[in-house]
Each structure stands twice: as structure tokens, then as C-alpha cells.
Amino acid sequence: MKARVTITLKPGVLDPQGRAIQNALGGLGFAGVAGVRQGKVIELDLADGTSEAEVDDMAKRLLANTVIENYRIELL
Description:
Its EC number is 6.3.5.3. By secondary structure, this protein is of the alpha+beta class.
């Protein structure tokens, strides 16, 4: 089984990488982009019997900084 953990910044947290991407897109002529938020995706290959609760614990304890980030788990 696989799990995908998608991590994004919480609303209101400054995103300098997102701002840099937005500026670069504008510089390339893509004027229709009003904002960019950058995040990350982590895919895990899980051993048989690994529960969603264990993946949630992994995300809370290591994968995401829950002070400034939200995360979403998908089992694949």
C-alpha cells in the first residue's frame, strides 16, 4: 500500500517561495496568476498492516510542521 501526504502552509503564513514563483511566472508573461502557494508532496511505500493512524502520527511528528503547515493523507 502507498500513502500520499500533501503538505501546505496554513492560511496567513507568509510564503516567500510562492511569491518568487508568482514573480517568475509574471516575468515569463503569465500575467493571469494572482497568487501562488507552494507546498510539498511525500509518497510513502508502506509495509502491510500499516494503518492510516500510523501515517497520521508520522505526519504530525516528522513530515509536517503543524505550527505553520496543514497536511492531508491519501491512501493509494
